[in-house]
Amino acid sequence: MTTPAYRRLSVAERRAQLLAAALTLFAHRAPEEVSLDDVAEAAGVSRPLVYRYFPGGKQQLYEAALRSAADQLEVCFAEPAAGAPTERLGRVIDRYLRFVDEHDAGFSALLRGGSVAGTSRTSAIVDEVRRAGAEQILVHLGVGEPGPRMRMMVRTWIAAVEAASLIWLDESEGGAKQPPAEELRDWLVDHLTALLTATSATDEQTARAVRALIAQERPDGPVGRLARQVIPLVSEAAHLI
Predict the structure, then answer these.
(1) Is residue 175 part of a domain?
(2) How high is the pLDDT of residue 114?
(3) d(CA 86, CA 96)
(4) What is the pLDDT of residues 101-158, one digit of tens each?
(5) What is the CATH number of the domain that holds 70?
(6) What is the pLDDT of residues 72-99, one digit of tens each?
(7) What would the mean pLDDT of 204-228 be, rounded to a whole number?
(8) Which residues form the domain of 155?
């Protein structure tokens, strides 16, 4: 039997290999539970080789892996500006929840900030992802220069998405996350729609964005469905007007 020829990896290839191994470990275990020996074993290399590429040790490797994960997470928010805005948002959330599901424990440790590997640099990386996500949402809302209320509303929603994701991971039943990802996605889309509607009552910029959003929606889309569910409740409260 012919033995495959050994191929020496370039610096970039070896670094990518080590990061991939580290990301896999950090995805399923909290950072403090992962050692350099674990990374070396997962990558099929020696511990000194890991140190050669990451002389700062585990902290440097963790920050590099976090940066790589952050880049992947930012890509989740990228969506072509075509079709109804809430349908675009649904596709963004689908990708986000897949990322959360695949990274599980690592995602929890990252957002909770409870890792001993956490530093001001790791916090800055996480906040950068949040800001990038907010900027992409504003793009889909057609808002180039958001005022303070609009920006606060979107950042509040991003925080709610993170909180819901952590609860989703914690409250899995028999290995199955509840509610199903599709239901969580729809609820998060409804949540943003409701926040937009409430904010538009006191902020004209948001009101303009909501009008433009509604004009692009389909009657059988998420906004139409939510309106049909909410209008009867609003009618019951008409005596308060």
Answers:
(1) yes
(2) 42
(3) 15
(4) 887 766 766 665 544 455 677 788 888 888 888 998 998 888 989 999 999 999 999 9
(5) 1.10.357.10
(6) 888 888 888 888 999 999 999 999 999 8
(7) 91
(8) 66-227
Say if CB 93 and CB 189 are below 8 A apart: yes
**pTM score, whole prediction:** 0.80
CB atoms within 10 A of CB 8: 6
Let me know if residue 213 belongs to a domain.
Answer: yes
52 within some domain: no
For the chain, percent of residues with pLDDT exceeding 70: 88
Q: Read out DSSP for 96-158?
A: HHHHHHHHHHHHHHHHHT--TT--HHHHHHHHHHHHHHHHHHHHHTT-SS--HHHHHHHHHHH
Please say whether the dihedral angle defined by the alpha carbons of residues 47, 51, 53 and 59, taken in this order, is positive or negative. positive
Query: Is 80 among the domain residues?
Result: yes
Q: How many Cβ atoms are within 10 Å of 169's Cβ, its own excluded?
A: 17
User: Which residues make Cβ contacts (< 8 Å) with residue 70, sequence separation at least 6?
Assistant: 125, 126, 128, 129
Residue closest to 34 by CA, chosen among 128, 112, 110, 125: 110
b/e string for 175-191 if b means 16 or more Cβ within 10 A? eebeeebeebbbebbbe
